[in-house]
Structures are given as C-alpha cells and as structure tokens.
Amino acid sequence: MGSQGFTEVTRLAAAREALLAAVDPPDATESVAVADAAGRTLAEGVAATRDVPGFDRAAMDGYALRAADTHGASERSPVRLDLAGGAAGQDEEVTVGPRQAGYVHTGSPLPDGADAVVKVERTEKRGDAVEVSLSVPPGNDVAPAGEDVEKGAHLFDAGRRLRVSDLGLLKAAGHRTIGVAPRPTVSVIPTGEELVEFDPGYGETTETNGLTVSRLAERWGGEATYRDIVGDDADALADAIAGDTDHDIVVTTGGSSVGERDLLPDAVGDLGEVLVHGVALKPGHPVGFGVVDGTPVLTLPGYPVSCLVTAFQLLRPAIADAGGFELEEFPAFEATLDAKIAGEVGTRSFVRVRRTDDVEDGEADSLPTVEPVRGGAGVLSSVAAADGWVVVPENLEGVAAGEPVTVQRWEAFH
To answer: What number does CATH give the domain 57-143?
Structure first.
C-alpha cells in the first residue's frame, strides 16, 4: 500500500460511517456526584424526586396576605391591615389571619393563611400595621410548590451530555449522585523520528499534534492518555498500538501517508485490518483507520492543520459514539467572502477564514466579512489566526468573492 500510493480514496461521509461502525457503544454505568458530572453522559433517563420549589414561596419582598382583604385598595384608598406577629411582622412561623399581613423576603415560605403577596413598593408600614395600595388576586407574586419542576417530572433522556446548568437542576430536583456512561478512553500516540518535546535542533520539530489531539479528546468527552513520541520504527509502532488496544480508541499522529517513512498503515494492517486509507477531504487526505484486536485505530496526518481537521471530522464523532451521546452542531455565523476560496471537485475542503470587519455581531444590517487565512496544512499559526472554517462541498471548485458562506466556529465548541 505504501509504495503503490492510495489504492482507494473514500468520501468523508462513507469514511465516518465505516469508523463509527467499528466503535463500540458504552455498555456500563458508573455513579458520580452531581457536582462532578459536567460533561458526563447520562446512562439512563432522569426524573425529579421532589417538587421544586418544595413549598409555596414569595416571589417578591413584600407582605403576604389574603387577596380578598385587598379588594378595592388603591393609592388614594389604601387598605390597612394588622401585622401578623406584631410590629416585626416577619416571624417565619406566623399565621396570617383575616385583615392581617406578614412581611416576607423573596424566596421565603408563604405563611399559613396567606394566598398572595404585595410587593413592598405598594405598601407603607405604620407601627404594627401596614397600608396596602394595590388590589391583587390570589396567587399574586407567589411561586407555588412545583412551579419550576413537579415531583416525578422527566428531566433528561439517556445520552444527554450534561451541561453545567443541568447540575443545578439535578441537585434541586433531589439528586446527589447520577448514573453516567464511562468516559471513552483514547490513547494518543505521536509518531515521527524528527519530533522532540522541547528545544528542537536543526531538522527537528516540536511535538504538538499529540498534545492538541489529547486535549481535544478530553474536551469532547474522552479520557485521553498522551503517550511519549514513537520514532519511525515498524516494531516500535506496532508495539505502541498493540499495547493500547485496551482503550476504546487508539489515535496516532504522523506517518499516515504513502512515503517511505509512513509506516502506520502497514503497522495497522499487520496487526489487524485497515478499513480506510485516504479520505477525500482537504487538508487531511492521508488519514486512515483500521481495527486491531477489536479496537479502532485512527491514523491522523502529521501536518498540524490536517491533523486538526481530521480529528474534528473523524475522532470527534467516534468519541461521541463510544460515549453514547449525540454529536452537536458546530456554532456558526453567516458571512460574506472578501476573497475567493478554492475547492476541489470530489473533495470536501475546510478553508480557514478570519473576519475582516470591525462590526460587533448584531450591530450591522449587512453580514460580517471574512477572508481565507493564508498558509498550507503545515502552518500551525494559521489555525490560531482563524475565526473558523468554511466547508466547500465536493461538488464545487470553490466559492467566489462576494458570495455568502457559513463559518463554522470549531474552537467555540466544547
């Protein structure tokens, strides 16, 4: 395969489908504290174990009273009510009787006997009484028990990847711990004879792909193991892959193409089976994957931009499948091209772009403008300079200047 070039180039959608077919969905559940569950995937549906709030409560600072006692009250003709509990009028145990009112804070329980609250701005305290200048109906400024969530109400489906805001709801609804799917384990193996960790000499390159991919894998819901660099040695590469097939996914970076030092496709083939080598996307054409001992092995290209694009397009959905959660769409914005961008018929292209206008989102009637970021697949700084990428589909040779485009903000995704 290496000496003869790419025997077959696979469309991206077909490659992704083949990879996901090789990924095993989660088949276990673990219990974690709700406080530690952000980013975890629910293993089963969740319902509320109690009402939220658990009691009728005041929605405003003011006076709890019987709505019927405010009939006819106005600024010109306020109703005078005695303070339940005396001049303090704010005993939590107080009972509000006819022609009485008790002071309440926002969120405090509604006193027995009361069925409404009048906000403090429409009252005037006078000694051991209060004058109310607003006529209100029953339930006014009262948050009833279960207003937010009723006991037994369905909260989330299995497969939801929990957000930080979900944790508060789960805790409020009575959950201390929650059942989640295990994080998919991802081994990330950087390869290349020229790679060093720091302080590269002549002809050497600082290792960055493994670092980037491992941190992305964790952001996407995986548990990454970032391995040491493996040189261009067939036996060492095979040992590194075979030693990590206890992970859910093995990812290598570099050495995936068809040159003399691109040994990974053959290493995967010798250990197991190569399913795809060469995908019709740009940058990232040399990406491939196979299966070794039942574990999918994804071989990402060594050029940094190619590595990034292929990780987003293949590793990210694989982690979602292995973690049992749905893949979310990338945040995006609409823009107008300042300059043309090139595509290639038969290949899906991901073109880095940056904004060229100074207008804040939502301030202008026209769309923001973007231009392509210059630099090939090996120019790492072009990624940092980009605000997103434009996807040019397989049926287009490119997009002309002045055309509207959708910019996917890949870095904005958690």
So the answer is: 2.170.190.11
| CA 6/CA 265 separation, integer angstroms | 11
For helices 234-242 and 264-271, angle between their N-to-C axes, nearest 10 degrees: 50
Amino acid code (one letter) for 376: G
Q: Which CATH superfamily is domain 332-407 in?
A: MoeA, C-terminal, domain IV (2.40.340.10)
Closest CA to 253 of 224, 234, 230: 230
Residue with tokens 């711990």: 177
Contact between 118 and 71 under an 8 Å Cβ cutoff? The reply is no
Mean pLDDT along residues 278-285: 96
Domain range 12-27+182-323, CATH class: alpha beta
Mean pLDDT of 65-90: 88
- Dig out the tokens for 283 from the structure: 């940058």
Bridge partners (DSSP) of residue 196 are: 206
Beta strands 62-65; 116-119: pairing state? antiparallel
Find all residues with CB under 8 Å of 121, minimum gap 6, and list them: 62
pLDDT value of residue 103: 94
Q: Which amino acid is at 121?
A: E
Helices (H) and strands (E) in the chain, counts: 8, 28
Q: Which residues of 347-374 are buried (b: 16+ CB within 10 A; e: fewer)?
A: bbbbbbbbbeeeeeeeeeeeebbbbbbe
User: 215 Cβ partners below 8 Å, 6+ apart?
Assistant: 224
CA angle (411, 186, 381) in 5-degree steps: 35
Asked if the 30-52+153-180 domain carries CATH number 1.10.10.10, the reply is no
Q: 343-392: per-residue pLDDT in tens?
A: 999 999 999 999 998 766 555 568 999 999 988 888 989 998 999 999 99
Answer for the pair 165, 96: CB distance below 8 angstroms, yes or no.
no
What's the pLDDT at 380? 86
Per-residue confidence (pLDDT) for residue 411, from 0 to 100: 82
Segments making up each domain of the chain, as ranges: 12-27+182-323, 30-52+153-180, 57-143, 332-407
Please name the residues in contact with 118: beta carbons below 8 A apart, sequence gap of 6 or more: 62, 63, 65, 70, 101, 132, 134, 136, 140, 141
Q: What is the pLDDT of residue 361?
A: 56
Residue 167 one-letter amino acid: L
Q: Distance between CA atoms of 295 and 272, rounded to whole angstroms?
A: 9
Read off the pLDDT band of 309 (50, 70, 90). Answer: very high
